[in-house]
């Protein structure tokens, strides 16, 4: 394995700092925490871009990101977020988590079903100057719809 | 940042070797390659476990994994797989890719629609003794169904 494939010590330290940023975002910045919006103000770049689940349009800017996620959290106000794995390298952090919660409010236009959903997801953050600059979020929304009773099982 | 949070040089070399394994799996082991099954035989542990998209049952064992993915590839025989990001640390590799292809065969019980689909996905590999030992695959199947014309847009 060529030495050039290894990260430099400086990059390695950066990736560990970025991992700490990701863990704080995933825990304190989660929508069931009282101060999540303040955490997002601190941790995200003003022009942050979110790529949510293959939606055709990216969510651009801190205010739009907060509004978008406020809507998502309304559907699942008690969603439990368990971090399963975190991997960091250079300016990228990817983590896998398990989500579990009851849909007690509207979600993507669907009225409350009061059914409980459990899914896996992946979040990828690109971090620049200590701020979340661009991020990707993917979960299987078909499984969410199936568990809510709104789509037939595969 | 405490030094203990950094990977050791040995772990770092291992993670780079694991990244090379992931890239070979993602490229040569993909279902549109002629010899993908031979690549899987070489690269996967006999008792490999796959967690596919929140399906309730894991896919256990090399033969079951090959059969399961043979079925998936039948639906999209020309699926193009573009690796966007790869992050490795210790025994874990996570990569994000973009998939694009036409559903010209049956897929999860759905007859061919001949429609083209483009989605993002995440794959996480756990590697033990140089073999893929356990893996997770997540994509938004609701977006797949929407692009195939089989689910209403969100």
TrEMBL record, chains A, B:
SUPFAM superfamilies: NTF2-like. GO terms for biological process: polyketide metabolic process. It holds the Pfam family SnoaL. InterPro entries: Cyclase_SnoaL-like (IPR009959), NTF2-like_dom_sf (IPR032710). Coiled coil: none annotated. PANTHER family: ESTER CYCLASE, POLYKETIDE CYCLASE SNOAL-LIKE DOMAIN. This is Ester cyclase. It comes from Romeriopsis navalis LEGE 11480.
